[in-house]
Amino acid sequence: MSLVRTDSFKSADELSNPVREALAATLLSLADNKRILGMRYGEWILGAPTLESGIACSAMAQDEWGHGRILYATLKDFGLDPGVLEHDRPAEEYLSSELLDSAVEEWPDLLALNLLFDAALSVQVEALTNSNYEPIHFKTRKLLEEERFHFEHGRGWALRLSETATGREALEAAFRKAMGPSLRWFGRSEAGFGQLLQAAGVSAGTADSLRQVWLDRVVPVLAEAGLEELATEFEANAELDWSDWDADRRRGGSGGPDAETLARIRGDKNRSMLMD
Amino acid sequence: MSRLVQLTRRTSADPGYESDIERGMDFSAVFAETIGQNPDFELEIPEWDAPPADLREAAWRALHEVADPEFPISLPDLGLVYDVEAEHSTVRVTVTFTASACPCIEFIKWDIRERLLEEPGIEDVIIEVTWDPPWTTERITERGRTALRKAGVSI
Questions:
Q1: Number of structural domains, chain B?
Q2: What ipTM goes with this model?
């Protein structure tokens, strides 16, 4: 990833239309995913296997909502109103992963979001941080600093569960469901938003190179947790199923956050209390 | 303040454990603080040798009277103030926060503005928030560390 920025962009206005749209969608997708992921972490504050991990979920939920707020605010540069983005969109306009559509029922599924999907979001944030698009540079380093702890939490729990055969099986089943959607989230290898952003210099990697960065980060943890088979299966060359991929919304399938999720992330019940 | 400031806690299961009370720590001050009676929880404002040379310095000194909402430590001593500039009657302050989702962001911005506007000669306050470089506990000054220790936070 090159840190040499010879032709920096100081505002979204300096980008060509297709690049501006792709970058706005990437930022919105990050914000939407982080907002909902924060809610998913929050649902485990009471009820995680240990008091400590419940508290960790509370901290991670808080972080994700902070990151969401920072990322929604970046969209002002694209002429969008962060207040509308946060509080006034229907489910079908959310650019969030199918992994997050409804509450996760089991702890290993939350760990899959924590270790796999949260890490995928971080890889994309890093690529924006190391890009030519300047307005993002001063906002994301703090966010990445906080994400290091999320990854460590996911890793610690993966290793802990892998100590028993039952734990390892539960982990493998949960991770298997999340691997494909996490890998696909970076987009298609051929002409798509990843390539467009990288070519314009506003993201430090193509879809494929970011996928590889992510694999390099999570595969060693899978191996440590005795899930080598799963790791091998999903190495870079594995065929991903794109049949239900919606490139515009960066998700599989046509759904979106379910009614309860939507009401809570938008703050529907508290709408009258929003004062700015 | 922030969960990044490590609060050291030992449990009664640890060998050699002695509770804070057994070690003779006096908690009455902590309880008194909750009803606003504890001098240890009052912000210690530095004494300056000479009057401020200019408006920028006056603003910088005034910020030493703005405390973190949870602990008796000033924003500059916590390391949150990255820059202060003054031009005519306008002061621009660049600040960061301990966590990206710090729930006190709006309170702190309000406190900064209120205090600076009390300063003679300041008519406008612009507050810029930055997240870069990210705040860490390394940014807490010696005076800040002493204040936190006094308040029972080990860092």
A1: 1
A2: 0.74
